[in-house]
Amino acid sequence: MVVALLLVGCGDDGRSSGAPVDAGWLDAGHPDAGVDAGGGIDCQPGYELGERGCVLQNPRLTVPTRMVQGGTLTLRAEILDESGAIDPSGCFAELGTVSMSRVADGADVPISVTLFDDHLPVPDDSIRFYHGVGSVSFTLDDGAALPAGDYRVAIEVRGLRATSPITLVADPAWRVMPATLSGADLVWGPDENIRISAHTTEVPAGSTLTIHPGTSIMVDTTGGLEDGTLINVNGRLEAVGSLDKPIHIFSQRGAAAMTHTVAGTSLSNPDAWRGINFTGDGTSTLRWVVLTGAGNGVVTSHPRPPILNARDTHSLLVEDSVFADSTGMMFQTPGTGSYTIRRSLVSRVGIGGEFLSSGHTLLIEDTWWTGIGRGPTEPLRFDGDGIHIDGVGSDQTIRRTIVADIGDDAIDHSNSVFTVEDTVVHDAGDKAVSMTGGLATFRNSLLFNADTGIRGTARVYNSTIATGTPITTPEIVQESIIWPSSLQTCSGDIDYTIVGAAGDLGCGDGDQAVDPALADPAVCDYRPGAGSPALTAGPAGGAIGWRGYPAFAAP
């Protein structure tokens, strides 16, 4: 597919008011353009009509197609570069705006952004971006009185604007599911309103629950603490939406379920639903799913109840999805299946995920884990990890991933040998990487703004670590930058590396203790700047340290 980047504003109908840059575009004859009933161009999802044809929408939006009157809407936005990849520049102080208007007359519709926790300010009608990816949930101020019909939500950031149509539904005709699914009840959608009312809903072993694009799923809740509504998948789940019609799963109690609460020593929110248990030996798929307001259950590991819980040998494939505003632990995998998470966003949750046991396979790619584990400070402070990975017999890889703004450890770990590539980890309340046993290998990765860099044994290549206590046990460090803290070059096989103190030099080849003159750390740019000694400090006179962001694939 040939794409173009939209760098201009759009009118209220979502169409471009200017021309795209010459990065490629779809004219009316292109097979991805299509033709509408009136003979004009009908752009494919993710594109909109510009002066020269269909141009790539920027920011790119993932938005459910329907919003229930008095309910909430959650969306994701990615700022794209000229190639169509996510532009990860900046840190997480970047704010855009979110607004809504009525299609019929263009009138603005007042909205209120849902507040999950208070660790960062949330200005009115704003969306916070972490390295080019943002998410926001909101309610309508006059939702109960606002007439049903067609509306449009808009995101503006960096002078860019993108819009998406939604339909406000006043009183949906819900299809209420029984406690045990069979026959026609194992197929939901497309474009259908499903209601889960039973305390526990079962997908029997040998059965597959299929959820089609555009399906809205409202989950009733008991209102009891640590007793939320649960879906048990003993067979398989195939929840496959699309860019223009994601699947939306949310709590009946709306914004009340999407707030981080503490009740005594419990971290459950009684207004939330619980989550989905996967058991047996099946493989389930979640693609283009927006899931919110979950995590009301019993704690089974770290002090957060699990939401998506894969047991036995059940495997999960998760792609292009959004998991947000849930007080629990989004992923927990005490089983030994295969777990793949791609091009997704996990944000504003209690804990990102715990991938437990020994013998599982884990691959995380092009995924953002942001604003996790913060929560309220009174009456107790419960920090949470971004990602926790375990298992001496497990095969685990994290690549092209952002882990930022984490309450406790950004990556926690126990007794496994794992790899981190092309990944940025920063602003952790405790350690960037906390290891108990095992061995971690880091390639072209960046760690900063944490009390500790890597607590444990590590091999580090072409990376930059700007934290306190950079590496507890460095086995190998090659062509890296450890600054401004330092590392003794005799503490491992350390070569062609810049360290923070001249007194730590003494072993290895090509090591230096000089200011690496990083480009602009204030905006999270830790590449060697112009004139930096790191640009020629490699064994063949090349650059060392973190090379910069990879090409992050957008959904």
What is the strand and helix layout of this fold?
Blueprint: E1 47-50, E2 53-56, E3 60-62, E4 66-68, E5 72-78, E6 94-102, E7 111-113, E8 126-130, E9 133-140, E10 149-157, E11 160-169, E12 175-177, E13 187-188, E14 193-196, E15 200-203, E16 208-211, E17 216-219, E18 230-233, E19 236-240, E20 247-251, E21 275-278, E22 283-287, E23 289-292, E24 306-310, E25 315-319, E26 322-333, E27 338-342, E28 345-355, E29 361-365, E30 368-372, E31 387-390, E32 395-399, E33 402-406, E34 411-414, E35 417-421, E36 424-428, E37 431-436, E38 439-443, E39 446-448, E40 452-461, E41 464-466, E42 471-478, E43 481-482, E44 493-495, E45 518-520, E46 525-528
Parallel strand pairs: 4-11, 12-14, 13-16, 14-17, 15-18, 16-19, 17-20, 18-21, 19-22, 20-23, 21-24, 22-25, 23-26, 24-26, 25-27, 26-28, 27-29, 28-30, 28-31, 29-32, 30-33, 31-34, 32-35, 33-36, 34-37, 35-38, 36-39, 37-40, 38-40, 39-41, 40-42, 41-43, 42-44
Antiparallel strand pairs: 1-2, 3-5, 5-9, 6-8, 6-10, 7-9, 8-9, 10-11, 45-46
What does this structure look like?
The chain has 555 residues and is mainly beta. The chain is globular, with a radius of gyration of 24 Å. The chain contains no helices and 46 strands. Among the domains are: 1-57, no CATH class; 60-169, Immunoglobulins (Immunoglobulin-like). The strands form four sheets. The protein has a 33-stranded parallel β-sheet that branches. Strands 3, 4, 5, 6, 7, 8, 9, 10 and 11 form a nine-stranded mixed β-sheet that branches.
